[in-house]
Amino acid sequence: MTAPLLLIPGPVQTDPRVKAAMAQDIAPWDNDTRPRYAALRERVRAIAGGIAGTHVCLPLQGCGHFIVEAALRSFVAPGAKVLIPSNGNYGVRMVRLAREAGRVPVVLEIPEGEAVPAALVAKALAEDPAIGVVSVVQSETATALVNPVEEIAAAVRDAGRRLIVDAVSGFGAIPFDLAAHPETDAIVFSSNKCLEAMPGIGFAVARIDRLEACVGNAGSWSFDLSDVYRHALTHGWGSIRFTPSIQALAAFEVALDLFDQEGGQPARLARYSENARVLWEGLTGLGLTPWLARERQGPIIVNMLQPPDPAWDLQRFVALLKRRGFLISNFSTTALPTFRVAAIGRVYPEDMKRAVAAIGETLAEMGVRRREAA
């Protein structure tokens, strides 16, 4: 049976060459492995716009939530306040990660589906000088919205505070240049989304001076980015702290080669943006109602309201669509029930056209009535 095409926001569809790289046994601390691992760290730092001698790439075993928690623990002192703008499910999750790590989240509530205004961030910082760090989600995967992180970063810099950027779902496609943002302690992301590699690795590209200044903050050996940096200094940049997802690192190396061959971040953003356009226009053409207006639609996923029809059932829809060769998320992440179709991964506009056609066939099989597209 042919596996369905993954149209979920991670793990994403990968190139066969990326998958093939996993099919080997590797010794993580072998002297032939070390230089490859060290080179990967430099390549990732460069994608983030990091400056040699100012920024370092710090891989961490685990998923995106792990690297977000590691950044919060490492750059926010225990008991200290961190401002978290929240306009979706991943902002809510960040609040929980901060609170359970013993930090004090100050939540800036923004209506779901609306972008975080930089002016409100500036106002919150002016009103509470005890807030030292802002932590913001760049691409809110729950709603498909991309927050104006460049503007937020400028507000943080003007206020003399520090910034953590959760770029888990957008890094490699949505730009953010660390060289232009000295207020940013770290940008964090994972291997299995826009870089189109396998899950198992989180990354922070962080400022060296802040890693040194924040030694002792983490309260967790596993999630201490300052300790990841110390280990590299002590044992060499090719040494990995604790047993890594080493096959995932081998796949990541191939994925970075493909990223470069495609043309890097601008080319990947262009492909995903076209994917999202085809999806948004195709699904609205089927009579579905988009969660976001076209001008606010991001390039990562397209979110549609679940049809208000008695024949609609999300689990049946997902199962029937899977039989047609496309697998989407089988849960909603918004206040109003929605379903998500991802535009990222090793997928192309022609795949999106086929997915739209399959969705139309599935709705017809279910007996879901079409409304006239606006």
Write structural notes for this entry.
- This protein is an alpha/beta fold and 374 residues long.
- The protein contains twelve helices and 13 strands.
- The strands form four sheets. Strands 2-10-9-8-5-3-4 form a seven-stranded mixed β-sheet, with helices on both faces. The chain has a two-stranded parallel ribbon with strand order 1-12. It has a two-stranded antiparallel ribbon with strand order 6-7.
- Strand 6 and strand 7 form a beta hairpin.
- Helix 2 crosses helix 9 and helix 9 packs across helix 10.
- The two termini are 39 Å apart.
Separation, N- and C-terminal Cα atoms: 39 Å
Biggest beta-sheet profile? 7 strands, mixed
Class from helix and strand fractions: alpha/beta
Across the major sheet, the strand order is 2-10-9-8-5-3-4
Q: Would you report the number of β strands?
A: 13
Q: Would you list the SSEs in sequence order as H and E?
A: EHHEHEHEHEEEHEEEHHHHEHEEH
Q: Proportion of β residues?
A: 15-25%
| Rg (CA only) | 21 Å
Share of helical residues: 25-40%
